[in-house]
Write a structure and sequence with these properties.
The chain is built from 4 helices and 9 strands, in the order βαβββαβββααββ. With about 180 residues, it is an alpha+beta fold. It has a single domain, classed as Pyruvoyl-Dependent Histidine Decarboxylase, subunit B (Pyruvoyl-Dependent Histidine Decarboxylase, Chain B), CATH 3.50.20.10.
Length: about 180
């Protein structure tokens, strides 16, 4: 029986690109993020047990041009001058090594970087908290829930990777990306 395809390492990255066409602005955002030379396959939001988050610089050395790379990717584009655009990835990792964690992705307009950071981190932590049976009031502010999550001893860490940008003043397409790349 073949061994299951489970990522052992992951890295976070983000980027922004501007161009007169939407596609090329997306490619430039991927270039800014350092992942434009890979064939990206979007996957859903499970962070595997025992997977280690490594620096982007180390992760890129493990990949080859043209390689199929699985990513959780958030992206957003605008060609409206001064319109704020944002993309973010959040992650929540459980304290127990055999338990999987969650990765969240979100894109939005008119959102600041700190607000996007809190949102994606909250989304991932809330998904994990519900899986782990941590009781909380979903209407409580994230800062309060974050304390509950960490005090439970069941969630060891949360983090976010966010990219925001203001739409180009001359109407060029502006694209932002945030991603976590999974390495096998």
């Amino acid at each position: 029986m073949d061994e299951p395809l489970v990522p052992r390492e992951a890295f976070f990255t983000k980027g922004v690109g501007k161009h007169r066409t939407r596609l090329q602005s997306f490619e430039l955002a991927l270039r800014d993020a350092g992942i434009e030379i890979y064939n990206l396959v979007r996957v859903s939001s499970i962070f595997p047990p025992h997977c280690k988050v490594i620096p982007k610089s180390r992760g890129l050395t493990r990949l080859k041009a043209g390689q199929i790379v699985h990513v959780v990717l958030a992206e957003a584009s605008t060609n409206e001058p001064s319109r704020m655009v944002g993309a973010g990835i959040g992650m929540a990792v459980p304290a127990v090594g055999e338990q999987y964690g969650y990765i969240s992705e979100h894109h939005d307009f008119g959102i600041t970087e700190p607000r996007m950071r809190d949102l994606v981190e909250d989304m991932a932590a809330t998904m994990l908290a519900t899986t782990l049976g941590i009781e909380f009031d979903p209407e409580t502010a994230y800062d309060k829930r974050k304390e509950i999550y960490h005090m439970s001893g069941k969630i060891i860490t949360t983090r976010a990777c966010v990219q925001t940008a203001e739409g180009d003043k001359d109407g060029l397409w502006t694209t932002v990306v945030a991603a976590v790349a999974l390495i096998f």
